[in-house]
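Retro notes - structure team

What went well: the batch runner handled both jobs without manual restarts.
What didn't: labels got mixed up in the shared folder, which is why I'm recording both outputs here explicitly, each with its sequence directly above its tokens.

Job 1
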Amino acid sequence: MTRRLAVIPARGGSKRIPRKNLRDFAGRPAFTHILGAAAQSELFDIIHVSTDDAGINQAAALAGFPPGFERDASLADDHTPIRSVVSWTLRQYAERGETFDTVALLYATAVFVTPEILANACETFESGDRSKPVLGVVDIGTPLEKLFTRNDDTLKSVDSVRFGNRTQDLTPAFRDAGAFGIFDAPRLLNDTDGTTALEFRAYPLDPWVGIDIDTEDDWAFAERLHAGGQEPSTKDEQ
């Protein structure tokens, strides 16, 4: 039987949106939306909110998921790779005699991810090549060769040779949705460098589901979408 762990990293020191993980979104702390989706999916043997913050710890406990241990302060700064937080968490559980087959990294402000999406994403991962994690992504809508970089006020094409080609002949580009990643737990347990690039398999999300809430503008946009009452697609898009 497959054992699964969900890790929701939710530190207290967000800079661009202060205290964003605890900030009220649709009537409750933002991180409790993905926590609720994980619980309702009934996929996970343990759901762990990884935090260094007493307020987040308390809110997780009130939601029925008190963290079994706090995140080490050395892993709660602005520079620690998020994957390192998950691998450290796996090691803490291993020391307590808890091992897992699959681990899901669930982002604290992925407020539109549903239980059905999580179930489909886990199925996609576990039915395929486990050496390649599944990553929630959004098609940015512009081919790679049509993108620009900027130096001061000057734009430079990423690919000046193919820039003029027809859009349908170019390479679709995706961004990390800041929603979730599904990993092979034993491999991630031994991951000592969270900055190493991995080969992922894509799990495409509707653009509004994959809003990476990093700024006040992102937050305001997410609130407007929620107020509009949109429902995400639950079909497997693979």
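Job 2
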Amino acid sequence: MRRVALALAALALLAAGCDDSDAPPPRPQPQTGLRSVEGVMIRDWLMSVQHGDFGRAATFFAPGAIIDQGRPYRLRDRAAARLFNATLPCHADLIALRDEGAKVLATFRLAPGPGGPCRGRVQVRYTIVNGKFTEWRQLDTEPAPEGPVV
């Protein structure tokens, strides 16, 4: 029994001394997915809105943040950010994120909310500076083509 323990200890020491310098070092994985810092932040904001905590949802926006849903305007203060969050008509699930360098493109699946029935997908391009949304720009969605597809 003692020989087995010594043999295992020797193998462990031998393995610890192996040099894997020929193997390439692991590359760090970019954090652009739903678990990235931006993904967690967007999901936390979204959960605040869905739970009706519009005061907390407002804290994710920088003073003077630009909101653009077809017509841009600025949120001059926390009260304006609270109102914006409180008047979003749909609930949504965050389903994808894409890192665009200085911006992040989020894709949401819409669900019925306080504004009535909502469906489909929407994309919002975020600019995040110092942990706050400085720009929140909803992209135009392309309507489905009508008539036969050629």
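One thing worth noting from job 2: The longest strand covers residues 91-99.
We'll revisit the folder naming next retro.
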